Amino acid sequence: MTAPHIPLEDLRVYCEDCHACSLWEGRTNLVFGDGNPEARVLIVGEAPGKNEDLQGIPFVGKAGQTLTELLSIAGLTREEVYIANVLKCRPPGNRNPLPEEIQACTPFLREQTRTIDPEFIVTLGNFSTKFILKTEVGITRLHGSLQRAGKFKVFPIFHPAAAIYDRTKMAALEDDFTTLGQLLRGEIEM
To answer: Average pLDDT in the 97-119 region?
Structure first.
C-alpha cells in the first residue's frame, strides 16, 4: 500500500521548516511552487533566482516572462500548469545547485509530483532533466524528445534563461513548446 499524498499546503509547511541544507539561512522567501494543484503539466526548473526569492513565486523574473510567452505557444497559461523547482531556496549568487542541496530538497519535489500527479513533466534545463530522468545526458541532446520516468511523460526543454543569454536558443525553445502543445492536444505521438 502506498502512503497517502500530502496536500500541497501541508507539504509547504514542512518545507518552510526544513533545515536539511544551509540554503534556508540565506533565503528571503521559500519558493515552494505555484499554479494549478491538479495540473496536467508540471514544469520543473532548477532553483529560484533573485526575483523569485524576493516574491516567493517561481519564474517571476525575466526568465519567467519568457516562460509565460513560451507557454502560450503550447496553448497553455500559467494558471493551467504547476511550476516548481528542484531547489526551493535560492543558491547564493545564483550558483549551480550542489549535490547535497539537491539530495536534501528533492523529497519535496517528489511529493509535489505525487500529489499533483501530472500527465507531463516538462523539465527546464540540465539540473531538472538529469534529476527527473536519472541520467547524465545533457539537455542539448535531450531537449524536444519525449522521455519516460515511471508513469510520467517527461519532455525536456532548454531553460528559458538560456535564450536570454544566447538568443540562438530561442528558436529551439519555440519549437519545443510548439511540440509540447501538439503532444497535449494528441496531434502527435513520440
So the answer is: 96
CA distances to 130, 148, 160, 181 from 139, rounded to whole Å, are 8, 15, 12, 19
Portion of the chain with pLDDT greater than 70, in percent = 98
The pLDDT value recorded for residue 2 is 62
Cβ proximity of 53 and 90 under 8 Å: yes
pLDDT at 1: 43
Contact present, 101 and 91 (Cβ < 8 Å): yes
Distances (CA, A) of 102 to 26, 79, 90: 16, 27, 12
* Contact predicate 160/173, CB 8 Å: yes
C-alpha cell at 71: 507557454
Do 53 and 29 meet the contact criterion of CB atoms below 8 Å apart? yes
Q: Cα separation of 101 and 80, whole Å?
A: 29
C-alpha to C-alpha distance for 175 and 178, rounded to whole angstroms: 5
- Cβ contacts of residue 37 below 8 Å, gap of 6+? 8, 82, 115, 116
Check if the beta carbon of residue 181 is closer than 8 Å to that of residue 73: yes
Task: Please state the pTM of the whole predicted model.
Answer: 0.96
Q: What is the mean pLDDT of residues 110-138?
A: 96
Instruction: Give CA 16 to chain center in angstroms.
Output: 19
